[in-house]
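Lecture notes, unit on protein representations.

Consider one protein chain, 274 amino acids long.
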Amino acid sequence: METITISKLNKLYPYSRPLPTIQIFLLGLIVISGLIALFFAAFHAFMLVAEPTQAFFAALVIEAGLIAECLARINKPRSVAPWLGLVISYIVSGTYNYTQAAFAGKDLGGWELGALAFGPLSALAVVSLTFGNELRSYQDQVTTWNHARADWVEGERKRIEQERQQQELDRLKLVQEQGQTRLESEQRHTEKMARIEAKKDVPRVSRKNNGGVPKMSQAEMLKRILEHLEKNGDTHMTQLAEQLGTSRSTLYRRIDELQQAGKVHKNGEGWKVN
């Protein structure tokens, strides 16, 4: 089986990574636009009492502090410190904006100055918190997706490992069965050869001639011929051949062998055993 790494399993995960929602993009656009607008408003207000460089950094610090506290509040919703920092940043920024608005617009009333000081600031804070909550919700979805993918990868890794182990067991079992089959075949072959060797020492009496009489070995036939001729020397050769289960020509050859060996001879009365 092909080795599959964790990275390959991560790519094989059947579910896609969650995508950011359209709300996140819209809220992000609003926050960026609000930050730019608030920055220029604060910069313009600070230009009335300070140099351009001082006004730039003052406006930047106010915005950065407010946004940092909003993000801290989102990342640690149960902590008191982000809440406290957000309230302090809101009060400081709002008071300073109120002072600048009062200096710039001397004819404006208190509620008008409050609206100019805290209205845009409050709107930006609310939008920033909403944007952060959307980001946190998306982050939770991604975290859940990562955990689910990790569990799936671990399950697939265990399943593949079990399949690999089972294949190895099946292979070993097959090798064992093949070895057992080969051993049994060798044993059968050995037994067969033993039977063949044993048959070599046994006279061939299983084959039969046309008369149905089992054939015998040459030594046994010679012995039977001698016994018969000793009892009846003038026997008829055809009858003797039938009794021995052989042909007349074979019988004559065996008698010639006995005669050449000096075991029988023929006289006027027939065959005599020496």
